[in-house]
Design a protein that fits this description.
315 residues; alpha+beta; Fructose-1,6-Bisphosphatase, Chain A, domain 1; D-Maltodextrin-Binding Protein, domain 2; 2 domains; eight-stranded mixed β-sheet; five-stranded mixed β-sheet; 13 strands; 21% strand; binds 2,5-anhydro-1,6-di-O-phosphono-D-glucitol; binds manganese (II) ion; carbohydrate metabolism; FBPase_C_dom
């Protein structure tokens, strides 16, 4: 029997309509990101074939030039977003400077074209992260003023998860019709969950407060369970759905942690708050940090509200 489904496009149009001054340009912007995501997804799916069909830097069996997936995704997002007609400035984790598309364009977008890229070669989940601002001429603005953010997860199925300030919704790609369908309506992070997600290999380099916290959660009556993929998109996606705590803290080698404020931390901190969870850099929300540079990194702890609260009692 036919069951009514909502596509991502229908959903975005309906959400934008609820806003008084809607012009349709946000919908157009998201549609370009959605289309880029579908193209990246189709390439991710074939990534393991590069070795037999042709190596990077060469031409493959179809006489196409083989590009590294992260370079390909980066270029595709630049091209498709520039063509959307909605862009002021674009920033990518792969580039040192922002690109001015049109000084007067309506939106600025920051993206991590392929997050978790060390996992590509081993066929483990990777993703694309994006963060959207109104263009007011200043590209380095606090994450708090984002007008939308989201990610695409290339996993067993492909998911598009985003928020434009009214909760978080997730869509799963139906490959048979090529559309993202609403599958995870109004995602709310569970308030508690004994999952922790951190690169434990850096333990000796962590600050004492972090070591004490980690020791403590392992000694609880119901010890915390470790879950770590090493792709932020996958680790935070699991945290959004199942709860727990995700951490990329400062360590002796990386005092500011590894993750980038504009491309990774802010979009996820925004989504986490929109889903009822929390995110902290030190004791404050990363969303309140005024970025000093495009490539700025910041330590981050995020996830279930009560898990973050518990962590904060250690610092
Ligand atoms: P990217 O592939 O975009 O450079 O990002 C990788 C990031 C992030 O996805 C992940 O959470 C983190 O690196 C993992 O860091 P460790 O290897 O230090 O665990
Ligand atoms: Mn990344
Ligand atoms: Mn990346």
């Amino acid at each position: 029997m036919y069951k009514h489904v909502t596509t991502l496009t229908e959903f975005v149009v309906a959400s934008e309509r609820k806003q008084k001054e809607a012009t349709g340009s946000f919908t157009l912007l998201l549609t370009h990101i959605e289309n880029a995501a579908k193209i990246i997804a189709s390439h991710v799916k074939r990534s393991g074939l590069a070795d037999i069909l042709g190596k990077t830097g060469t031409t493959n069996a179809y006489d196409e030039e083989v590009q590294k997936l992260d370079e390909f995704s980066d270029k595709l997002l630049f091209d498709m977003l520039s063509d959307s007609g909605q862009i002021g400035y674009l920033g990518s984790e792969e580039k040192e400077d922002v690109l001015c598309v049109n000084k007067k364009g309506k939106y600025n977008v920051f993206f991590d074209p392929l997050d978790g890229s060390s996992n590509i070669d081993v066929n483990i989940n990777i993703g694309t992260i994006f963060s959207i601002y109104h263009n007011d001429g200043d590209v380095l603005r606090e994450g708090r003023v984002q007008v939308g953010a989201g990610y695409v997860l290339y996993g067993p199925s492909v998911m598009f998860v985003y928020s434009s300030g009214a909760g978080v919704n997730g869509f799963t790609l139906d490959p048979s019709i090529g559309s993202f369908l609403l599958s995870h309506e109004n995602i709310i992070v569970p308030q508690n969950k004994n999952y922790y997600s951190i690169n434990d290999g850096n333990y000796e380099l962590f600050e004492n407060s972090m070591k004490e916290y980690l020791t403590s959660i392992k000694k609880e009556e119901k010890p915390y369970q470790s879950r770590y993929v090493g792709s932020m998109v996958a680790d935070v996606h699991r945290t959004l759905l199942k709860g727990g705590i995700f951490m990329n803290p400062s360590n002796k080698k990386r005092p500011d942690g590894k993750l980038r404020l504009l491309f990774e931390v802010n979009p996820f901190a925004y989504l986490m708050e929109q889903a009822g969870g929390s995110a902290v850099s030190g004791k404050i929300s990363p969303l309140d940090i005024k970025p000093q540079s495009l490539t700025q990194r910041t330590p981050i702890v995020m996830g279930s509200k009560n898990e973050v609260k518990k962590y904060l009692t250690f610092i």
